[in-house]
Amino acid sequence: MSPEEARAAFRSGHSAPTAGWAPGHAQANLVSVPADWAYDMLLFCQRNPKPCPVLDVTDAGSWSTPLAPGADLRTDLPSYRVWEDGELVDEPTDVLGHWRGDLVSFLIGCSFTFEWSLAAAGVPLRHVEQGRNVAMYVTDRQCRAAGRLRGPLVVSMRPVPPRDLATAIRETAVLPAVHGAPVHCGDPGGLGIADLAEPDFGDPVDAEPDDIPVFWACGVTPQAAVMASRPPFAITHAPGRMFITDARDEQYRVA
């Protein structure tokens, strides 16, 4: 399925996790905030580039992006979240009724983008094999605050066989625009995660007996900042349900 076909499916109301969709194309997290919060968000992303690598920022009120000409950020994601004062108030499949003329949208790199490189290198993707969303966890690591925004680092986890660990690190390290190399491997307690079977977002993923849990910084981190900092209004993607761009993943490879 092409990115355009995927976006058309979502525009018509289909909703599903986007891992494995539109091979070879970059996916992006979405966070839209009022213009008077946009500098805080931009600074938060600049200060926390691992979880928040910015691919594009729109003008206030705009729902278009050069990452996908003709696409509509209000309708072309599988599912959205609408926030008021840090509280989740709606999870629609489009935000036409919630859109405001002062919203500035940030498109942030997503680790689903580098999964094609992992698969091509022979690294298994357990959540894709199991037809599940990736598991995501709120950690005990605090991001660097920026203006009124603060919050914890969120990570995604993929179980990796020991023989593939070096490959997984190498393949993702050359894609910093979509989170780059892992932030932690092994004991989840090192990130303050008590139970891998209880993710904060997404689905629990079954590991093989020898698999090592590997954690990458996650673009759901801005949502955690919205919950912690309580801006008056925000729109985000639903975790694991991303904006699929026309950009090719290799254009973000640095080596």
Rg estimate, integer Å: 17 Å
The CATH architecture of the largest domain can be named as 3-Layer(aba) Sandwich
The domain tally reads 2
Helix content: 10-25%
Form type:
globular
The CATH topology of the largest domain is PSTPO5379-like
Count the beta strands: 11
CATH class of the largest domain: Alpha Beta
Secondary-structure-based class equals alpha+beta
Largest sheet: 7 strands, antiparallel
Average residue pLDDT: 96
Put simply, the count of helices is: 6
Parts with pLDDT < 50 across at least 5 consecutive residues: none
CATH superfamily of the largest domain: PSTPO5379-like
**Strand percentage, roughly?**
25-35%
Element-by-element helix/strand order: HEHEEEEHHEEHEEHEE
* Gap between N and C termini: 28 Å
InterPro entries: D-Glu_cyclase, Putative_hydro-lyase, UPF0317
Protein name: Putative hydro-lyase JGB26_31500
EC number: 4.2.1.-
Keywords: Lyase
List keywords for this structure.
PSTPO5379-like fold, alpha+beta, 6 helices, 2 domains, PSTPO5379-like, Putative_hydro-lyase, 11 strands, 255 residues, 4-stranded antiparallel β-sheet, 20% helix, single chain, 25% strand, lyase
Polypeptide structure, described:
The protein is α+β, with helices and mostly antiparallel strands and 255 residues long. The protein folds into 2 domains: 3-111 and 230-252, PSTPO5379-like (3-Layer(aba) Sandwich), CATH 3.40.1640.10; 114-217, PSTPO5379-like fold (2-Layer Sandwich). The chain is 20% helix and 25% strand. It has 6 helices and 11 strands. The strands form 2 sheets. Strands 1, 2, 3, 4, 5, 10 and 11 form a 7-stranded antiparallel β-sheet that branches. A 4-stranded antiparallel β-sheet has the order 6-7-9-8, with helices on one face. The protein starts with a helix and ends in a 7-residue tail after the last strand. 47% of the residues are buried. The model has no long low-confidence stretch (mean pLDDT 96).
